[in-house]
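User: Fold this; tokens only.

Assistant: Input:
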Amino acid sequence: MIYDLGVYGSISAWLLLGAQCTQSVILAQKRSAIGPVPIFALRLAQLVLTTAVALANLTIPRRPGVFTGGNRPVDAMNTNSALSKYTFEWCNAVLRFAAQKGTLDMSDLPRPNADTRSADLAASWTRANLPGSLMLRLFLTHKWAFAGQWVLAFIQSFGNFAPQFVLLQILRVLERRGAGDPITAEAFVWVAALGLMTVASSWIEGWLYWLSQSDLSIPIRAELSALVFEKSMRRKDVKGVAKTAEGEVDAENVEAGATKAEIDEEDMGQKSRQAIVNLIGVDAKRIADFAAYNHFFPGSFFKLVISFAFLIQLIGWRSLLAGLMTMVIILPGNILFSKWYSAAQDRLMKARDAKLAVVNEALQGMKQIKWTATEDQWGAKIKKVRDRELRDLWSSLLNDTGLILCWIASPIMLSAASLATYAVLEGGLSPSVAFTSIGVFKQLELTLSIIPELTTDLIDAFVSVNRVEEYLSAPEIAADRKVSETISFSHASVAWPCDDDTDEADKYVLRDIDIAFPSGELSVISGKTGSGKTLLLSAILGETDLLAGSRSEERRVGKECGSSV
């Protein structure tokens, strides 16, 4: 990293040197019997110089402006001073330009930094090559961002209840004041503390949300999108192969989309190119969104501990226990709805993949459908997968509604039961206890109400992580071709691409191929239907699995562009 010292750097270095010299003078004064030196003046000078050094370090830009991609500037978050970064002042330049222009184009926005660009993130992911599942690798890659997020969530947990504590002190001061007595200075001190704590809590909350988006949500989505795109270029194009009643496979008809046995729609959806759209547009977004808001889980735990401790001191453990019993009654329903929602979401995503695959196949073969007058059959096929999607969507929404009902009812019953029990046990409610308890229960209501919703987000993210991981772990195209003067096969056995765990008996294989195609000549492949003509042509292009032997491709340098054939 390059730091722009310049005039500000020289001043900062001079001030730091002055502070060190002042401290040396003080130490020398203590060791010698020289005449009286004003120690207070030296201490004051040291304090002034130290303060000046701190202010200089906070206000000096940390590096020169950075430009990339056609002389476009990189965002100034890590370029401006620390004070500018932590007060979000670095955004004002873009906001002022937007106010002047009235609108913003993509060319007007600065480029994202290296921690956000997808190319850099994908390269770092590949270099790291971390072990474990996809969820664990995401956590290890962004562990410091997660740690910072959780630390801020812990601090914010205290900040949310600090105004309630100050409100309790203010109400108690007012309760102790007699009729006609003036308001004491203590009340004004607590009012000032209430304002400071509210501002500090809002600033921490704003920085927490910014960290969640800039360091987690955006990088993770860009990272996963780049990995999926890269995998799509290397992924083996697995064909759906169906066996006939006699145990054979009509590979050419499979290639044409007219198998004798119906291809499983769910498997077809998983392997279609259209599924990439879902992986990037839906699954990657779900994972990124959950990464941005996962801090509510530890934050909710911290808030529950703090609020319960506060309420025990305020209304007693028996009143709080009476309120918690209502949550225990609702808990089984919450668990059941969460389980049903997870299963419904899994089925819904698979149904959407299948629907996109069938619709994409119909659009690509629209001319063939018109020629063969099979519109009704294809319409029925599309309606079938669409009806399946609607059923799964309805089931998902019903279970989500049940979860929402649980998190709406739980906090209301908690506060009502707790305050009613306290009033019965103590014979009434004082204003300080009533208003403070209502404020704490309001915070507790938000905390409890968000946990079921976070649970559904966790389930969605877990399903999406499994889908992305399954795609990224799919078999890739093998580099099994050799370069020679001609296209040839030597004792080769080739089959349609399929998953690595496919049984050998389920593969359609051309065995022991020994053939060399003459360079620059016309070659004709002929044979009856199902004899493997398409499979051989695909093997020439390298789009099949090589089970045995070897194959070679001809590489010729073009006269003008140097292309290979």
